[in-house]
Amino acid sequence: QGTRVGFYSTSCPKVESIVSSTVQSHFKSDPTIAPGLLRMHFHDCFVQGCDGSILIDGPNAEKTAPPNQLLRGYEVIDDAKTQLESVCPGVVSCADILALAARDSVVLTSGASWAVPTGRRDGTVSQSSDANNLPGFRDTVNVQKQKFADKGLNTQDLVTLVGGHTIGTAACQFFSYRLYNFTSTGADPSINPAFVSQLQALCPQNGDGSRRIGLDNGSANKFDTSFFANLRDGKGILESDQRLWTDNSTKTFVQRFLGVRGLLGLTFNVEFGKSMVKMSNIGVKTGTAGEIRKVCSKVN
Ligand code: HEM
Ligand SMILES: [Ca+2]
Ligand SMILES: [Ca+2]
Asked: Which residues are noted in the entry as heme b-binding (predicted)?
């Protein structure tokens, strides 16, 4: 597909160490950049391929689209890019920096590492309207599967990659509708009743929609399988996440990650790296396509 592990081994041998030390130093002062960068890479790849289009500034650029408005960590990419331009000018793409930073973010939150193929080139187009095809938090399993299939990702990849919600947080605005008047009798019945009152306390009706709570209750800072146990227990935060447990085609993968007896086990840490490599190769521009941006927030 054009990318390969070690693409910069002669042209910029320090790229991986520079990116990882940059992510690490930002993470020390602000651990929220780890989930931020992982999500940013996903949103980059699903729109125009993994080409750094999410990083471009502009009045109608992708980053202004509603699903992208709360992305964070842009300053980490800019910082790494500045350092890389001083040691190997014009060599490393912003798209690759983001792909490496996403992996480093998983490692910093105690996930397993994987080798990231590099050699992506940067795109020159970034339009907010292109962000419409991103998966939404109210999507049914069929819609989620379709949106992933459109990018060459199967049902196992879907469940595995959504497992990225093992780290990070969501704002109340994305799920409080599930807590009040969801049905004529109250909250979304797929939420564990004991959990409903906890969530209501954290996200009061007509309260601050920007308040954030962990997507993986009790383990929002650690890259582990707790997120899948929470789905089993009716403690998924997003409606789209909880649905992975309601639908049999996705539930079986959740169960396999949980080591349910009678099913062939899957190791989340191992599968996550494999599915990330697939995702990070979506629509990549290689060879002479695109460009190597000088500054990640604007085309050359
Ligand atoms: C059906 C697919 C998906 C949907 C509907 C979805 C939706 C969302 C929503 C609504 C949020 C909360 C945003 C906020 O409040 O700032 C979120 C956060 C997050 N998502 Fe997803 N997501 C999906 C798949 C993925 C995938 C594939 C990844 C990565 C591999 C991912 C990684 C994350 C992370 C790490 C966060 C936390 C961000 C933070 O703390 O800043 N998501 N997602
Ligand atoms: Ca992109
Ligand atoms: Ca976790």
From this structure: 165
167 pocket-lining for ligand 1 (C-beta < 6 Å): yes
Q: Looking at 43, 81, 145, 235, which residue is catalytic?
A: 43
Confidence check: pLDDT of 1 > 80: no
Distance in Å, CA 10 to ligand 1 centroid? 35
Q: How much is the pTM?
A: 0.98
Question: Is the shortest distance between the CB of 71 and ligand 1 below 6 Å?
Answer: no
Q: Which fold has domain 141-275?
A: Peroxidase; domain 2 (1.10.420)
If you measure from the C-alpha of residue 39 to the centroid of ligand 1, how many angstroms do you get, rounded to a whole number? 6
Q: Is the CB of 169 under 6 A from ligand 1?
A: yes
Instruction: Pick the ligand that lies closest to the CA of residue 163.
Output: 1
Mean pLDDT computed over 125-135? 96
Percent of the chain with pLDDT over 70: 100
3-state secondary structure of 284: coil
What's the pLDDT score for residue 154? 98
Q: What is the DSSP string of 245-258?
A: HHSHHHHHHHHHHT
Q: What is the ipTM of this complex?
A: 0.99
Residue 169 pairs in a beta bridge with 214
H/E stretch holding 30: none
Question: So where are the chain's domains?
Answer: 15-134, 141-275
Task: Return the CATH architecture of domain 15-134.
Answer: Orthogonal Bundle (1.10)
pLDDT tens for residues 197-239?
999 999 999 999 999 999 999 999 999 999 999 999 999 999 9
Q: Which two tokens stand for residue 287?
A: 């060879």
Measured between alpha carbons, how far is 62 from 133 in angstroms, rounded to an integer?
12
- Angular region, 110: left φ>0, alpha ψ -120 to 50, beta rest: left
Specify whether 43 is catalytic: yes
Residue ranges in the chain assigned as alpha helix (H): 15-29, 33-45, 74-87, 94-108, 141-149, 155-162, 193-202, 226-232, 239-246, 248-257, 268-279
